[in-house]
Every structure is written in C-alpha cells, then in structure tokens.
C-alpha cells in the first residue's frame, strides 16, 4: 500500500468517526441530486479499502457494500464525474452483483468527494434501473452538489478539530495549573519587564507570611523583591531573558531570620519558542541546610571523641607495653604465675584496641 493510499484511508476513517452536524443539509443535497438527475436512487458514500459506507441516501435501504461490488471504486480513482449510461454495456460493471441481480441497476453517475489535501474519500452518486443520459447542465449541477457536500463535511471536520484542540488545551491547562498550584516550591511567571504575570499559592503564602507583601498580577519587580536582593535578582532574570538557565543557592536575610533558597531562573517561551519572560522558582532549603550542618557537626564531634579516646587509651597501653617488655627481658619468676595471666590479658587488650581504631 502506498503512502498516499494510507493517508487517504486515514482521512476516510476520520470522516467516518466524525460527528456530523449538517445532517439535514446533506440529506437535502442527496434528494436534490436525485431530483436534478431524475433518478430514483441517490447517495453520499465514504470509501475505504474494503467497504463502501453509505451515510446519506434516498431510494435505498442498504448501509454498506463490499468494495469490490461498488460502482464508486471507479469514481474515486479519478477526479472528474463518472457517468455510466448503460451498465450492461460497460466492461467495468456489467458483471456487478447489483447489475446482474436486483435491483438490476443500469445507470450510474458519481461525483468524487475530494478533500482540500487532494484525497478522494467518497462520492455523491445517483442510480437508475433504466439506461440514461445526463444533460450537460445535470452533470454540472451534480459536480457542484458534490463540492457543496465536501464543503459541509470539511466545515464539520474543522469544527471538530477546533473542539478537540480546545478540549485538549483546557485539559493541559488544568493539568499545568494543578501542578503549578500543588507544588511546594514558589513559582513566578514574569514578563520581559519583570512584572508579575502569574504565580502559585506557595509564592503568595511566603510573601504574605514572611514579608507581608500581597502579590498581584502586574506588580513591578521593586514591589516584591527585597532591596538587598534586587541587583542579583535582576541580573539572573536578564540572563534568563537571553536564553540561559540560572540555578543558584542563596542565603537571604528575612524578617524571620536567615533563609536558604534554591533559586532557578529560566526563559519562559511561547508556542513558537520565542522568549516572552522569565519563569522563576524558589525552593526553601533552610531545613535541609540546617540538617546538613547538623550532620557535619556530628561527624566532627565523632572525630574529636575518636581522637580523645585514642589518646586516652594509647597512653596507658603504651606504658603497659613498655613495662611488659622490661619484664620479659628480665625473665619471669617461675613460681609467680600471675605474670603469664597479665601477659595474656595485655595481648587481648591490645587486640581490642586494634579493632576499635
């Protein structure tokens, strides 16, 4: 199957699944086509590679026809109007099931339904059980009605696409807003002048509880940034506006004491990728820094204890070791067994010291 045919089938499937709002108008076109061409049967059909799907009809009750049994398979293979004046005299359809059997079709005229991207996805067609010849005016009117069918269908397709995109954007916005608001970090979206464009509840709560500032859209930078932090904030925002991502840890003096923050300045982009402002995030890492300092202090305390214990144990053990060495050189009195016990105890104590240090 060619890529073009795959695209055509995808288009047909999209129209088959589409909710059609212009049903009355399309049914009226079918009836008008039958009246203009003076035929008892008229249809609007969609054609995939296996089935002819009859969506609107007059003079017939059938809903689907196998692709190989259709007249319209020949219509969608070309762009112009296809007219078969006598089916029994046409090699393409004279053995057709609906020609050989009831309703014994003899006449057919079909206008191709072609999308704007040049996919032949169906037909507006008329049938008769008697051979027939259409006038030039009838042929032109059938072609025009086919184009009107396509306009109505593509209008519905565009409407459905807009609706789907709208619903998708609402869903994405809801997800983004949910994430934005549920984040424990503070978020600010700033325009190119660094005025407030949007913010989350965490940012509102911090500025209100710590700095007694009521955040509002359009607020200039000088109204929500502390004076001593202003130059650094502006510098990092300017870097973000140039396309850089700035990530720093900063210790800030606040009315409630020193606070440690992890700050991120990122370029805010629009749908086309153009930088339209700054996305600023601040995460309070004060507790983390306190915990880190506590761990460092504890480790230093352990090292000091180790040094103290080492010094306190090494000194007497070294003294005992020296005394034992002197005794060994002089030789133990044979009748005093305590010396051998003392030597054994010293060896055990020395081994334990090695295990500890």
Which properties best describe this structure?
single chain; 357 residues; Beta-Lactamase; 10 helices; 49% helix
Brief characterization of the structure:
Helices cover 49% and strands 22% of the residues.
Describe this entry's structure for a reader.
Pfam families: GAF. Residues 26-150 form the GAF domain. This is GAF domain-containing protein. The protein contains ten helices and eleven strands. It has helices spanning 3-17, 23-37, 72-75, 97-100, 136-182, 201-211, 221-224, 230-241, 286-330, 338-356; strands at residues 41-47, 51-58, 64-66, 82-84, 107-114, 120-128, 186-191, 196-199, 246-254, 257-269, 275-284. The chain has three domains: 3-163, 2-Layer Sandwich (Beta-Lactamase); 183-284, PAS domain (Beta-Lactamase), CATH 3.30.450; 302-356. α2 runs antiparallel to α5. The strands form two sheets. Strands 3-2-1-6-5-4 form a six-stranded antiparallel sheet. It is an alpha+beta fold. The two termini are 78 Å apart.
The rounded distance between the terminal residues' Cα atoms is 78 Å
The run of helices and strands is: HHEEEHEHEEHEEHHHEEEHH
CATH superfamily of the largest domain: GAF domain
The largest beta-sheet arranges its strands as 3-2-1-6-5-4
Number of helices: 10
**CATH architecture grouping of the largest domain:** 2-Layer Sandwich
Report on the biggest sheet.
Answer: 6 strands, antiparallel
Shape descriptor reads: elongated
Low-confidence stretches: none
Tally of discrete structural domains: 3
Name the structural class.
alpha+beta
Instruction: Report the CATH C-level class of the largest domain.
Output: Alpha Beta
Number of strands: 11
What Rg do the Cα atoms give?
Answer: 44 Å
Say what the CATH topology of the largest domain is.
Beta-Lactamase
In terms of DSSP E residues, the strand content is 15-25%
Rounded mean pLDDT is 83
Helix content: 40-55%
